[in-house]
Structure formats: C-alpha cells, structure tokens
Design brief:
Order of helices and strands of chain B: EHEEHE
Distance between the termini of chain B: 8 Å
Helix content of chain B: 25-40%
Distance between the termini of chain A: 43 Å
Radius of gyration of chain A: 25 Å
Number of helices of chain B: 2
Largest sheet of chain A: 7 strands, mixed
Strand order of the largest sheet of chain A: 5-4-18-17-16-6-7
Shape of chain A: globular
Oligomer: heterodimer
Strand content of chain A: 15-25%
Number of helices of chain A: 25
Structural class of chain A: alpha/beta
Strand order of the largest sheet of chain B: 2-3-1-4
Amino acid sequence: MYTSQTNRRSFIKKMAMLSAMTAAATMFPGILFADQQEEGIPNSANLDWKKGPCRFCGVGCGILVGTENGKAVAVKGDPNSPVNKGLLCVKGYHQTMCIQSKDRLTHALVKKNGQYIKTPLNEALDIVANKMKETIEKHGKDAVAMYTSGQSTIPEGYVASKLMKGAIGTNNLDCNARLCMASAVAGFLTSFGADEPMGCYEDIEHADYFITWGNNMAEMHPVLFSRMLEQKSRRGAKIIDFATRTTRSSTASDTSILFEPQTDLAVANAICYEIINNGWVNRSFVEKHCNFSKGLTNMGYGLEDNYKFKDKPSTIDFEAYKKFLEDYTPEKVAKYSKVSVKDIKYLAAIYGDPNKKVVSYWCMGMNQHTRGTWMNNLVYNIHLLTGKISQPGNGPFSLTGQPSACGTAREVGTFTHKLPKGVVMNEKHRRLAAKIWKVPYERIPAKPTYHATEMFRAVDRGDIKFIWTQVTNPLVSLPKTSRYRPGMEKDSCFVVVSDVFPTPTSDVADVILPASWHIEKSGLYGNSERRTQHWDKMVEGPGETTPDAWMTIEVAKRMGYGDLFPYSEENHVEEIYNEYRQFHEGAKHGMAPLEVLKKESGVIWPYVDGKSTQWRFNAKYDPACSNGEDFHFYGKPDGKAVIWQRPYEPAPEVPDATYPFWLNTGRVIEHWHTGSMTRRIPVLHKAMPSAYAEFHPEDAKALGIRNGENIKIISRRGSCILPASINERGLPTKGQVFVPFFDENMMINDVTLDAFCPISKEPDYKKCAVKVEKA
Amino acid sequence: MPIKSYLAHPHSGKKEQLIQALSSIEQCEIMPAQNKEVLILVTETENESEENLLKEKLETINSLKLLALVSGFNTPKNN
C-alpha cells in the first residue's frame, strides 16, 4: 500500500538521520540538534503544549509535550527550564514513542494454572489486598515487602511509605535507588548530616575546572555535558576525565586520566596528601567549619546473607589525619593505581589553586563501589580542605541516574531506614511521621529491615512471602540475578508487579498491574539539583491503566486502612503533596507550594520566602544558616562538616589466574537503564539493538577475538554470551571488559557480584573477576 | 531510490551560508547542530544518476568544507 511505503521511506530517512546523529555524537560529545524538536509535528498541527520533566535521567530536563486529539505527538525541550534551556538528548526527544508499543500492559493479568488471565483491575486489586492481609495474618507483617523506584513520583513513593511504615507497621520498603545513589546519601549524611548536593547546575557557568570521577557524562548526562562543553569553548573552562575506561567523555575532555579499578580511594587520599604537603589547605575554613573523624575499617563486603555492619566514628585531630595520609604519597599510590605521580600532582594542584573554581561530578563510578560511602567522603575531604564548597562554581556534586531518585527515594524516603523526614531510628522523626499520618507512634518500627540486596535474598530464603514491585525491573537490574531470578520464581513468595510493559520481572509475577506511564498521570519528580517539578496529566492511558499511587491507595483501602488514605481519585496528587509538604516545613528543606510548581519549570528547595536556595550552607545564599559565620553546615549538631579518614581497601573479588579480567558494567546513550522503555522506541532500538562486550584491542588479539564475534563472559556466578566490540564505542583499559546492562536478552547481571558498601548497602556493579571464552 | 546521510562540515564561520545553500536543494534535508559547527544532511534521490548529479552540485558549494558519508540505504523504486 502507498501509505505503508511512504511510512517505510520516512522511517528509513529517520534512520539515516539518526545514524548521522549517532556519528555526530561520537565525534562531538554533547552535540545537540534543536530541529529534532520539531520532528513529527504535523504541518497543520494546532498542538497543546504542556510542561513537565523528562521521564528518563536524574538531570531533570524540562520538556514540552505537544498533544493533539488526546495523543502525544511531539516532544521538545522547555526553553524556560533552567536545567536544559530548551535542549534535550536523543532519548528525551523520542520518549513518548514508547506509549504506542504493541505489547503495552493495558489490563491486569492474574496467573492461574500457569497462564496469565486478563482480569478486571478491581478484582486484581482485591487479590493483591487479600494476599497481603493473609500473609500478614499467617506470617507477620515483616513477611510482606514493597520494592519501589527512583522513577516513582513523589506521591507514589509517599503512599507506599505510608502504607508500609504507617499503616502496616513494617520497614520492608526499599527501592532501586539503593542500587544507584545510596552511597551518595550515606556520604552526604556522614560528611554533612544533610542529604543532597549543596550546589546546583548553575555551578557550570562559574567553574574553571570540571573533574569527573568515574562518570561518562557525555552519554549518561548529555545535556549537562553539553553545558560544560559550551563553557569550555566559550571561556576556556577545562574538563578532566578521571576514569577506568576511555569513553566519549574522555575524548571530549581536555585531559583523560585512567586508574586501576578501586584505587580511586588511594588517589583521592593522595590528592589530600598533596594539598596538605604543599600548604594549599584553606586553614581558616577548616578551623572554623570542619571536624576530623575516622571509622571502622576492614568492614567486609556484605557477601553473606544477613550481613550486618554499623560504623563507629571517633574524633581525630588534624595531625593524626596528616600522619594517616603519609601512606598515600603520590609516589606510593602511583605504584598500584597506575596513575602517574605527575597526574596525581596535576589533579591536586587544580584543587589546591585558590584562584581556580572546581566542581567535581560523579555518579555510578563512585557510588556503585564496595567503599562507595568512603569514596564520597574522600571527594568531600578535598573540597573541605580547600574550602571549595557551597559557592558558585565550587563544590562536590553527585549526579543521579533516575528522574526522582532525589525527589522520591531520598526526600520522601522509600528506603527501609527512611521516613519522609529523617530516619526510623530517630524517635523524634517517628513521632512527626505518626502525627502527620495520624497513626499510633508505636506502629512505626525503630529498626530498618531489608535493603534491596538483602530483600531479594530474603525472598530467596523464603523469609519474604509477598513482594510488590513498582516502576522497576529488578530481575534485570539487580546484581547476581543468577540467584535472585530463581528466588523470585519460587512458590514461597507471591509476586505483584506494577509496570507499563512486560519485563523479565513481570514474567515471574502472580499478578501484573497495568500502570499509567509518565504523562498519563499527574505527578512530581525531584532532580539532582534539588529541583522539584510538577506535571499535569496530558493524555489518557489505554485500557485500565492506573497511576501506581492510586493502585496503592486502593489496596490500602481494601486492607482496612481507608481512613489513612482519604484522597480523591481526581485530586490525589495535589492532596498527597500538600500532606507531604508538612514534613519539610522550615528554612532547611521547605518545599514550594503546588501552585508555584504548576507555574514554574521547577524550583529548588529549600524554597524560602518565595525563593529557591541555590547554594546551601553558604550564609550569602542560604537563609537557614544561623551561626553568624560565612558558612554553616547545619546538618551536624555543631554546625561543622566532617573530614573523614578513610583508607584504600581492595575490591572483594580481583582478577586472578582463573578469572583474569575485571568486569565493568554500565549504560549507553541510546538506552535508559534496563531498556524496558527505550528498547520499545524504534529509532533508539535500531541505533543500539543489543548489548556487547568491549575489549582492549591487545586483549582481543591475545584471545584471538574478532570484532562482532560471540564470546562468553564467565564469573563464579554465571555467564553471558555477547558479541565482542573492539575499538568501537568505548575503550576499556587492558585487562578489563565493559558490558552495558540494558539488554534483557544478554543478562550480564547473571555474572556480576552482589557485594555492597557496608555503610550505604549499595552494590558494586563496576568490579568483579571474569574469564572470557569464545562462544 | 537512494537515501543517504552525511555529516556536513562548513568552513569556519560559514555554517549559516551552508545551511542556506543546502536548504535550497530539493533532494536535501538538513538538521544543523545547535551547539557545534556541523550539520546533518539527508539526501533522497530517484536513482543513481540523480545521486551523482546531486553530488556534483554539492561539491560546488563554497561554504562546504567536508562531506562525510554516514549511512546509505537503497529502497525499491516505488517505495
């Protein structure tokens, strides 16, 4: 038919265009094409443009979605958003295309005799509520669990927390943000007593140097990287890429410095050694605003079930810290980090130069680390020693991978130990939650239970007998899925999965609930720079798709908790947000009223007297500072930040004669996380149809591996067959293999190790030992 | 019916002229980068001889420094 031929040619043209865009992105990391915004917009379109945040990463770009006759037909960057100023990346432009996917989950599915039966949603919710109640009656409240997401909206996370902690009275709630930024949280809390970055994206316009720590921003945070490149070309700002693998970010940077996996701990200490040894310490800042502490060492790696660890901090003085650093001279560290003495001194000199403004950026490289909390502490040490913090262009900045890892997981608190304000261990915080939730204070347990890895271990052991996952795909994203997939398949646990598309996780569900996608519901996200963004529902979802928040509320009502969830279906987002805001009242974390968020393209908290606070802890910008000094780290009782003595310790599993390669896993620009959305967007899927294993050319030659040839990567836990990639997207160091994890048909997480940081409980996806064979 | 995509690199400071020149050619569709001195060019011609004529035409554009082929597709004539 003529129409289909036209469509085919138009599709081929689009593919040709995308191929060129991909090539351009390789040659010019951070490149942006504004015309892409207009693509797909009918010539005669009279579109209704509605604002919201992008569905994908933690940058939180503002988008405008053009709708016509109830359908989303175009996406463009929001020019009013201070985050992206009208720009978007390739994923952002195409995001709404996944809604049309033919295999969309439109109705509830209930497994009966091994078959999924289409079931009215009301009946499916009855089954979920009855099963949850029955499990609690038979096995106790700690036999049920919820596992949610850094992609859950603020209201979705809030009602999940209220149901589990306030209504049922269990702390069996954790989320996939545990897998991506728990180390950043633990780092902020231990160093500053307050979570989330003190600065904001506007730092990019002020910094002289950007030092990225294990962070491929050109592919993972392309819009921010593009802003950095603009500063590089406009005023000569410098980008230094410090990483274990050469990526698009490395080639676009001024300097690329490679290090041996895990030795970032030693290099950070060496930088501090140099700063002190050369007299670059900002003495007045350190004396006024910092304490020194050390914690326990040789903590283990959480490899065994029911592993427990509690740090015991003790105060030290500057001299003791200085003495500790003597083990980290550049000469000593260069020997095992494979970073030259010259490069260590170069990095230290940048941080140490009082006339240069420096921002450090990191994401998964530092967070997915068995010493992730320490690594975060160590970068804070560098900024604290030099006083380069909480000022425009100066500061440490942990980026997030998910659109509301900050807004929902961290601020609402969908971790086992968290409450919407504070932690379950703190009586004051429990009392505040009980008061706002109108539940007896005694109902909220004072002890955290299962963090993500341990939660799925508990499912495997049979301790958790009911689990409900929302907006996440753990059977692709967890480490060591070779254990956790069979665990979830066991009859001992009833599995409920809410999602938009079928995934390997929904494949093991007893009940599948059809969730509304992003713009099919109203919601709020919070991005990496503390910016809260609201959007209104833009289109109707298909079939019986329903917002996760509303499905949680319906289950709560069926379980007899209706009085705690008095929200209306039409206005529940607004009602929940207004209730939630009460937790954060005050100058330290005040959230903007909803009417402001409806109008603006997001605002940054603390929102005080109608203004965003861009730089916390700095009296010039932050009205919560009250000590009469220039800076006030008010998260700590004495108002001082902590410089931590944290040593280098090796990874739990290192290459040896049997498993001679490091395995590093990560992402690619075309796909977002486990690919359940982006692999359903034809242009993105075509551009990157499957995963691959990157090799250093010398390793490939030694193994006799050709480009594209199938190879098998084997660890002590499992194996995965993928095509080899040599001198293509990225270049691992010799002795390292890199594999992206987006492809559910090539399950690299069957191979990875479930070791985690003992403080943050965040797993390390970047380091384990593997061998390679021809497949 | 060849469809090809290229990265078109302008001479220094000539990006706007290159955009104008390419926009005036019927078989050319362009997408300029917002923040770099490069643009994407997608060409769609009826057959190889038209393709060759187009190439000759492109080579005469003064503002064009380099044309780098990225992808090429050939679809059946009636598609």
